[in-house]
Amino acid sequence: MILSCDKIPSQNNITGIWKGRHLELELTFEFNHDGTCNIIVKDNTSDSIQILNGNFMMDLSKKPISLSIRNIPQLNHPLHTIVEFLGTESIRLGNFAPHWRIRNISFDQNKSIILKKNKLN
Fold it and tell me: What is the pLDDT of residues 49-96, one digit of tens each?
């Protein structure tokens, strides 16, 4: 028998506001208790801002944990990725894919997105 002292994540662990940078983008993800989310993407090279909203779902039975964002009015497809909790204050996301079957199944260090939880949550 193997026992682990690691805390098992739940969907509540991702609720809140998460911020980070990836390449020339500033990213803000807001995951709400009701399963809705908002994503703000600011491109620092053009100063353009894109706001996406939708419904998110995590599959905690998978390793790595899969995260899907659906019903996005600004896009004609959902977004699928993987997520890893790096403690309680940061997460790592893989690249987003428009189809579940082509989402990443492991993290690429050069393409991962690290987000830190906003302390004001």
Answer: 999 999 999 999 988 999 999 999 999 999 999 999 998 899 999 999
How many domains does the chain divide into?
Answer: 1
pLDDT tens per residue, range 2-38: 444 455 666 678 999 999 999 899 999 999 999 999 9
At residue 13, φ and ψ (nearest 5 deg) are -65, -25
CATH number of the domain within which 105 lies: 2.40.128
| Chain-centroid distance, C-alpha 88 | 14
Residue 100: inside a domain: yes
